[in-house]
Design a protein that fits this description.
It contains nine helices and no strands. By secondary structure, it is mainly alpha-helical. Helix 2 runs antiparallel to helix 7 and helix 6 runs parallel beside helix 8. The radius of gyration is 17 Å and the shape is globular.
Length: 216
């Protein structure tokens, strides 16, 4: 089996920071929609922005203190995302598209970043796929729990976790088995995740309940 963690394979921090920025923006927008105060906005932005990364580093990789607390740029990215959401709140409240696009971008970025970091730690491809999906949806789950809503990924809805899974599977396959350059594989994985998510919303692709009481 090909070595999934060659020496040159390092997750670019720009992807991680971009994911934190976009996730934080979606968390801040959710707080603004619920008319939370400044503390509520910052808490939801932080949880959504770096919650998935904390789950990734603290539970799965356990390679010392999480990157979020080692590098101040992550919190700056969170603050920037929250600030951008607050600054454009009036326009964004009228438009659903920017929120959807930001969420799709964040989903794709974090899915690939989580898978990258897991492969770089020397873990197998299946583990990388799992961690990538958790990294992508973890912050959103924590956000929904804090605002007392049923997490999006548990409800029949447009493809969300499955979009992240598609991107992770493609990225891991390209990287490990096809030996594609990491930037190329990452671009394709991110692009596929974003495309699947946006197409699911646009075309109405939805998951369904596996069991209903009205079924025989």
């Amino acid at each position: 089996m090909p070595d999934p963690s060659p020496a040159f394979f390092q997750p670019p921090i720009a992807l991680d920071l971009a994911a934190s920025f976009f996730c934080a923006a979606t968390g801040a927008l959710a707080a603004l929609q619920k008319r939370y105060d400044l503390v509520g906005i910052l808490v939801l932005a932080t949880v959504t922005g770096v919650g998935g990364a904390l789950l990734r580093d603290g539970i799965f990789l356990q390679a010392g203190p999480p990157a979020v607390v080692q590098d101040g740029r992550y919190l700056l990215a969170v603050l920037a995302g929250a600030g951008a959401a607050a600054f454009f709140a009036r326009q964004l409240h009228r438009l659903r598209a920017p929120f959807i696009i930001a969420d799709a971008i964040a989903l794709g970025l974090y899915a690939v970043v989580g898978a990258q970091k897991t492969l770089a730690a020397g873990l197998p491809p299946l583990a990388a796929t799992l961690v990538g999906v958790v990294n992508a949806v973890g912050g959103g789950i924590l956000r929904d729990v804090l605002v007392r809503e049923e997490p999006l990924i548990f409800r029949p809805s447009e493809l969300y976790a499955l979009a992240a899974l598609a991107g992770c599977v493609l990225f891991v396959s390209l990287t490990v088995w096809l030996q594609a350059p990491a930037p190329v594989a990452a671009s394709i994985g991110i692009g596929v995740t974003i495309a699947v998510r946006l197409l699911a919303i646009r075309l109405g692709w939805r998951t369904g309940a596996l069991w209903r009481e009205d079924r025989p």
